[in-house]
Amino acid sequence: MPQSTSRAGRTAASVASPLPSTAATGARNWRDYALLFALACCWSSTYPLAKLALPTIPPITFISARSLIAAAFLFAILWMRGISLPTDVKAWKLFATQQLINSTFPFLIITWSQQYVPASNTVVLASTTPIFAFLITSLITRHEPATLLKLAGAILGLAGTIVIIGLDALRGFGSEIIAEIAILLATISFACATIFGLRLSDYDPMVVAAGSLLFGGLVLLPPSLIIDQPWTLQPTPTAIVATIVMGIVSSALGLMLFYMCLGRLGTLTTNAQGYLRIPIGVGLSVLLLGESVPSNLALGLLLVMAGVAAMTVSAERLKWR
C-alpha cells in the first residue's frame, strides 16, 4: 500500500542507503501476486496502444506526451490525497536517474532499433531482462536471494516467449547486430532500473511515479518541439485516445504498481511480470488489432506460467552462491 505523507516527505539521504533485502524474503500473500498480475496487464497494453498511436504521432512526441499525461493524472490524485512531492535536490536526482534508466533511455533505444529489427526478434531480445536482473543480483548486488530455481524460471519464461511468437523469430538474428546489441543494452537498463528502484522504497509509490514521469516528459519536450514540431502533426482521434489511455494505464498506473511490487516482492519476482505480459499482450492485440492467435500459444503459455511460478516461489534458504 502507498506510504504515509510523512514517509513521502523523507529526505533522499535515507533512500540512498544500501539496497533493502527484506522485500525478497518477507511473507507474501495473494494481494502481492494480484498486484504483479495487474502490473503485467497495465504494461501489456503498451504494444497495441503504441501500434495505434505511432502511425500519426512520432516516437519522441509520443513518449513525451504520454509521460506528461501520466504525470498530470498522478499529480491530480496526489493533490486530492493532500500529498506533495519532495523539494530536495537529492530526491529529484533519484527520480531523474530512475526515469532515465527505466524509461527514457531504453524506450528511445528500442524505438530506434525497431527500424532495423523485426518485431518478433525485438520481443525475444527484450524478454531477456529477467535473466540480466538475475545475473546482476547474483554476481554484483546480492541484495536478495538469487536461486537456481529463479534462473530456471527466467529461462523457461524466455523459452515460452519464443514459442508464443514462433520459432521463426530466431531466424535472422545477427543480421542487424548493432541494433540487436542496442536492444540488449536497453534490457540491461531495465534490469538495472528494477534494482535501483529499491532505493526509492521509502517514498510513496505514487510520488515516485509522478516525479519520474514529470522529469521524463519534460526532458523529451525540447527534442519533440525541435524535431517533430507537434503543431504540424495531424494525429487521428484513435491515436489521441490511445496516447491518453497509454499515459494513464500503462505509464501512470503501471509505474505506480511497479514500485509497489518492488517494495513487496523484490527485484527478481517483479521482473517475472515481463513474461506474463507476453500472453496478455497477444490477447490484447487479437482483441484491439484483429491479429491472429499464434498456433503455439497454449504450449508457450504453459512454459511462461511455469517460468513465472519458478520466479515467484519464495525460496529464502535456497541461495545461489
Number of domains: 1
Order of helices and strands: HHHHHHHHHHHHHHH
Structural class: mainly alpha
Largest sheet: none
Q: State the distance separating the first and last CA atoms.
A: 33 Å
Query: Count the strands?
Result: 0
> How many whole angstroms does the radius of gyration measure?
19 Å
Query: What is the 3D shape?
Result: globular
Average pLDDT metric? 79
The fraction of residues in strands falls at under 5%
Number of DSSP helices? Answer: 15
Stretches with pLDDT under 50, minimum 5 residues: 1-17, 21-25, 315-321
User: Share of helix among residues?
Assistant: over 70%
Helices, strands, pairings?
Blueprint: H1 5-8, H2 12-15, H3 22-25, H4 30-44, H5 46-53, H6 59-81, H7 89-113, H8 119-126, H9 129-141, H10 148-165, H11 177-196, H12 205-228, H13 237-271, H14 273-289, H15 297-312
Helix pairs in contact: 4-13, 4-14, 5-13, 5-14, 6-12, 6-13, 7-11, 7-12, 8-11, 9-11, 10-15, 12-13, 14-15
What does this entry look like structurally?
This protein has about 325 residues and is an all-alpha fold. It has one domain. The chain is about 75% helix and about 0% strand. The two termini are about 35 Å apart.
Describe the structure in brief.
The protein has 321 residues and is an all-alpha fold. The protein has helices spanning 5-8, 12-15, 22-25, 30-44, 46-53, 59-81, 89-113, 119-126, 129-141, 148-165, 177-196, 205-228, 237-271, 273-289, 297-312. This is EamA domain-containing protein.
